Amino acid sequence: MIDVPELALVALVGISGSGKSTFARTHFKPTQVLSSDYFRGLVADDENDQSASADAFEVLHYVAGKRLAAGRLTVVDATNLQPHARAGLIKVAREHDVLPVAIVLDVPESVAWERTEGRADRTFGRPVLTRMGRDLRRSLGSLAREGFRKVHVLRGVDEIAGAEIRYAKLFNDKRELTGPFDIIGDVHGCHAELVALLTKLGYDVSRAGAPHPAGRTAIFVGDLVDRGPDSPGVLRLVMSMVAAGSAICVPGNHEQKLARKLNGRNVQLTHGLPETLAQLESEPAEFVAEVKTFIEGLVSHYVLDDGKLVVAHAGLKEAYQGRASGRVRSFALYGETTGETDEYGLPVRYPWARDYRGSAAVVYGHVPTPTPEWINNTICLDTGCVFGGSLTALRWPTRELVSVPAAREYYAPVRPLREATTRPDEGLDLADVTGRRHLDYGYGRTTVNAENAAAALEVMSRFALDPATLGWLPPTMAPCSTSNLDGYLEHPATAFADLRAAGVDKVVCEEKHMGSRAVVRVSRTGSGDAIWTRTGRPFFGPALDQPLLERVRTAAAPLFADLDTDWLLLDCELLPWSAKAGGLIRDQYAGVGAAGRHALPAALAVLDQVAARGLDVGALRDRIELRSSEIAGYSAAYRSYVRPTDGLTGVTLAPFALLAGVGVSYASKDHGWHLAQADRLVAADAEIFTPTRRKIVELGDAAAEADATDWWLSLTAAGGEGMVVKPYAGLAVTDAKGRLVQPGVKCRGREYLRIIYGPEYTRPEQLARLRKRNLGRKRSLALREHGLGLAALDRLAEGAPTWRVHELVFAILAAESEPVDPRL
Amino acid sequence: MVDVLLTVTTTRPPATDLGYLLVKHPGKVHQFDVPTGTAYVLYPEATEDRCTAALLLDVDPARLRAQQESFELGAYVNDRPYAASSLLAGALAKVFRSALRGASKDRPELAAEAIPLRIRVPVLGGSTELATRLFAPLGWAVTAEPIPFEPEIGGNSRYVDLSLSGTVRLADALNHLYVLLPVLDDAKHYWVAPDEIEKLLRSGAGWLAGHPEKVLIARRYLAHRRHLAESALARLEVAEENPDEESELPVARKVSLAEQRRAAVLAALTEADAARVIDLGCGGGALLAALIKDRRFTEIVGTDVSSRALDQATRRLRLDRLPTRQKDRIKIWQSALTYRDDRLRGYDAAVLMEVIEHVDLPRLPALEASVFGHAHPRTVVVTTPNAEYNVHYEGLTGMRHSDHRFEWTRAEFRSWASETAERYGYTVEFRPVGEEHETTGAPTQLAIFKEKEATA
Fold first, then answer.
1. What residues does the Polynucleotide kinase-phosphatase ligase domain cover (chain A) (predicted)?
2. What is the pLDDT of residue B325?
3. Considering the entire predicted model, what is its pTM?
4. Looking at domain B4-236, which of 3.30.70.1400, 3.30.420.40, 3.30.1610.20, 3.30.390.30 is its CATH number?
């Protein structure tokens, strides 16, 4: 029976003909086995070309590295008789913090020679085999010394044939334990506070092993000892809990040092160790021996709860989780330092948590902090109890914090506990957003192209708000399918048909406001409030944005209370269009209008004079007359979205969806609910808010559809842009196959579309051409952006790290730079 | 659909001879196919005393669109069908080809004679002032009435109704129009012919060389080639970066401020003994070009967030043509200063030359964290405008560049720099760049941050 860790680099060792390939084939999957012969073949077209060995091993090591990085068992089928060949494998294993294991196949030379002679492709002579045999003898004694953590030697053909592989879990692999847990920060001999905290958490400290009636398990992040008043008391309690199965414990650097001292090693008697030693002196020798055994048996980190939780004293970066090596242990105990020291002479720690991108939550201690804060899914629970702070526990999986204050300061800190700051800056890494990236966001998968990411990076970094604020961007919306009704490119009939085809039976038709899309974040306190455009830019600048937000905040006060949230994210349209887009209207639309309105009468005057001279210009004149009426319609279309504003006077917001609040995404609420919330805002402040008119339609109810169509005709006849038809059930509606449905389709008015498709688009020949428009790209883009946005709201609700929200918001912006017909 | 319009009137009797000069009979309606649509020539009046020829261009938007590949909305709804521009100029050249050359088979003497002419272009992009500057030196009396927007919108559009009158050879008049209509309009042009420079010189023969605005005319006339190439990049509405932004400011200098700034930065880098240098926000690569000439800089990295700026820098440095050894010294990367970038760690020095003022103030801490905290080079050189100096720029209102998010006084810059240095473990010293004024200081302020010795 051969024990092999589940994650290991297994080196087969043996002379040619010893049966390595057969052994590998018997016990491992073909993809797990990297054979030197195969790699020689890959690089040289000849498995026996020894001159290709250097290149072949370079590639083999590279592939082995990729496999190990991904956490896959890897077996190397090569003779591995030379120390330098094995050193290469040890190096690859260490680089990926996996255990190197050797399995030696030792067969008599005669057997090997017989097999070699039987193979046509093996041309070397017996002396070569003899030399290999000598190398093998020499190797056997040195394998363990070279760094192989396990060496299995199989002697003879029968032993090899009878061998079986048994996989062993790593000590740190406790994924099967799912808690619930109470993870407790650095205790440092504060026995009274530990008892108080355990009691508060519900553990029965009066009973042996302090069990929890509900079967909860305590996890200690280490540093039980030193500095405090009763390290032996803490050890006794924790050891009894571990023995009884009511607690798990990882070692801290203080335990590590204590064990070295107890083993008679020469260590510096600093940082509270003398206190512990003095306290232990009055303890019986057997207890001290038990302490030594206990500490020596501790595993430096654990992966728990199906891989969702990692506990280590000083934290652990993702690449080290579930791995085993000296440096993994060292990181878990001491963290990573930059080699520098600060003004108090303490080591400067590398901020690994800031760069952490792993999916497992990492819970640790080691560095005293005034308040525990989640940073990129990691949290430090050392709240400096021994320094007069508090002792803190994190309840898992609920993530509640429970703490008890220290009775007093037991030990003066070298460096004062840092004053409480606001949420620590997680910062963002360029690698979070740039390059070609694949995103699996829960509602689908997408690839962000490098060029689109590059374009988005420019907008995001130069013009947008702080990504920590920018929790969501509005997705683009596809128009309804093209209508074939005379004179119409878009019509309610096709909008209803689109949604019916998607399996929707009830829709809400919302008046489409023609203004500028605005996302608003308001909070009870006003901190972090912002309003941004569809590309994440601030709206008018702080001088106007702040008073506007103040108005929204005031009106939203009852919502904060009723929805029990400290902040809200609103999806709105800011009106009038001219407030934000005045320059665009003048430069683009009204410029065309002014030119047309002036040019056409001049041309008509010329033609009238020509006609008066008896020349026939009738057809030409008719065309200009038509064009005059078209340009008048065009001018009327954009003019209806222009209203005078002065500062905030005249500016209003039309909210139509409430996206998220603290710990919740409102995507699943139906539009009746969303509009009711919007109505409450309008009722609270009718000056700053504009209501959204709506019709609810049961699809298939011909009368209701006709009624909505008439309503749309009257809205658009009065200069309205049109309407948006949405599935009534909510923002995240899926079809029968579970795929997201378009969150809405827009159905734009006949006159409005003049400013999109040109004044003359209603001519039959132009409409015929425009009806060939292709909506596929726009629809897929709209759906992708919608899914990314829903996922961003989910992550926002679960309090995910900034980078997790930002990668999605960034992807929405990147999608917007894809070339899609802007008229859709 | 006849849209773009131009009329030419003469009162030289017999006025109907205008028909001979233009080779278009006043008694007919003439129709021509031109690349952008259909052109008509017709005569609203044709008497012995007064004759007017009208050129109407019926622009076909579909044909216009076919000439450009772009997803800008402006490509679909635009003023080209109404406003005189290169389109009308092109039609003019085609329809009145011989008149433009000054040739006339039937009336050669008349073609050579300056005659009383009145020209009207009802809609033309451009200002009254510019129209006067362009046409008045050529002997025209100019009237250019601004065309107003609708009352709801208020104010005037960018168009004028242009009338010219003067005694000018018809061929000269047509050549003036051919060159100056597109110059005055100066919008994006979608219509381009391959031999523009030659056309300009041919049409400008005899008048352009002596024109007081010849530089502006040539620049604008030829500008549309560049616009065409770059229109795709306008999709995200990114403001164009102008590396030498003060160059248009009215101040007399011997050496440009930009050059002085580069020299000051190079001096700071040399003093710091920096060999491996990053230019953060390298723009078009002006500093990189200076760095690469100095062999002391063994590794040079230019970063910018704008892909367009990086393309410009790549072209300016001729990276594709540099010998391998030279090329290995320089790298051009896209990076954003508000994100941490691992590639930027471990350099001797970083330069932020006229960069920080392009970052919104609330985002500046993110820049500080990524540059001073994460990249953490031994030396950081920062330059930024000195707002106090702005009073010396005559006619300057607001800030020196439209993309500047702030401009600091010396006290503000010092306060920011000192706090940043303190927070990230640097010492800082300040230097003026450019001519120093007694009360306001120099136009540019420079700070050199040096990493404090590690207390190992």
1. 455-819
2. 79
3. 0.82
4. 3.30.1610.20
